[in-house]
């Protein structure tokens, strides 16, 4: 999806529903769309911040301005890519709020990356397990473990309004990038199916606009991934090939900056198909089993 026309509301607190406001970080890119969206949940008493974003002073100041006189009781992270969690530590230092949410994750990876690398500074005060909740004045945020984009990815359900904060797991503007070895396509599909069985009213992703028809989008995303699987199997039926050999046929007219992301996505599919016994590899070359 093409970028929307500027100006974007970077650094501005925008109310998206009575219990939820968002602040857009100044980090637009082909992978982050207009930037990372930090959410402030709650109005009076105490509030929570979801995905504090990059460690950018202007963004931290914008979050503090959005919080205003309320007490920040929790800084919650969906996962630890560097566009999501690095502001957690400085925000905690300035407010005294604990960092809670996903587990820490450090992945050594010297290969090409199709997404922001992991934040190795992330050190939560409390890790939320699946089904565990944080509560405050008029709000309850319950964690859902949704591995796939990353193994430590969480979504947070706002029980009072039926909203789900989906991080990078589901976004309206783009499919999520699944980057092995930590990203896992099989886990990603299972997590999508889990969300598809829920009845959330709206999704608030970390990038892009709210998803007003979430179950419809999830069905479409599952169908899209299955279509990609079928493309891969069809192409391997024609000839064995390296990962790069899939891209021209599967991603026609792709922006060259996004080729590494496409190659990682194909690799994630191939690894999943290999695990299921449908394909095998010989060095860098893949073929049907």
UniProtKB/TrEMBL annotation:
Transmembrane segments: none
Domain called Metallo-beta-lactamase: residue spans: 35-207
Alphabetized CDD domains for the sequence: metallo-hydrolase-like_MBL-fold
GO MF, any single term: hydrolase activity
Cross-referenced SMART domains: Lactamase_B
Keywords for the protein's UniProt record, in alphabetical order: Hydrolase
InterPro entries: LACTB2_WH, Metallo-B-lactamas, RibonucZ/Hydroxyglut_hydro, Sec-metab_biosynth-thioest, WH-like_DNA-bd_sf
Protein name per UniProt: MBL fold metallo-hydrolase
Source taxonomy: Bacteria, Pseudomonadati, Pseudomonadota, Alphaproteobacteria, Sphingomonadales
């Amino acid at each position: 999806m093409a970028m929307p026309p500027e100006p974007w509301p970077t650094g501005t607190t925008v109310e998206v529903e009575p219990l939820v406001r968002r602040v857009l970080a100044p980090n637009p890119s082909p992978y982050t769309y207009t930037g990372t969206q930090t959410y402030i949940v709650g109005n009076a008493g105490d509030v929570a911040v979801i995905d504090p974003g990059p460690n950018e002073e202007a963004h931290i100041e914008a979050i503090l301005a959005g919080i205003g006189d309320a007490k920040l009781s929790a800084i919650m992270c969906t996962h630890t890519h560097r566009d999501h969690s690095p502001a957690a530590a400085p925000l905690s230092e300035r407010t005294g709020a604990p960092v809670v949410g996903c587990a820490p994750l450090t992945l050594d990876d010297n290969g090409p990356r199709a997404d922001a690398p992991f934040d190795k500074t992330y050190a939560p005060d409390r890790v939320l397990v699946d089904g565990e909740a944080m509560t405050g004045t008029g709000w309850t945020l319950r964690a859902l473990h949704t591995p796939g984009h990353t193994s430590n990815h969480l979504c947070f359900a706002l029980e009072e309004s039926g909203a789900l904060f989906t991080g990078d797991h589901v976004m309206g503007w783009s499919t999520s990038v699944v980057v092995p070895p930590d990203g896992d396509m099989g886990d990603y599909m299972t997590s999508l199916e889990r969300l598809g069985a829920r009845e959330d009213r709206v999704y608030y992703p970390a990038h892009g606009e709210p998803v007003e028809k979430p179950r419809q989008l999830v069905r479409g995303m599952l169908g899209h991934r299955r279509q990609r699987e079928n493309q891969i199997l069809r192409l391997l039926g024609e000839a064995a090939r390296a990962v790069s050999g899939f891209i021209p046929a599967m991603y026609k007219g792709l922006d060259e900056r996004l080729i590494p992301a496409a190659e990682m996505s194909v690799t994630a599919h191939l690894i999943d198909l290999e695990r299921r016994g449908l394909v095998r590899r010989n060095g860098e070359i893949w073929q049907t089993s």
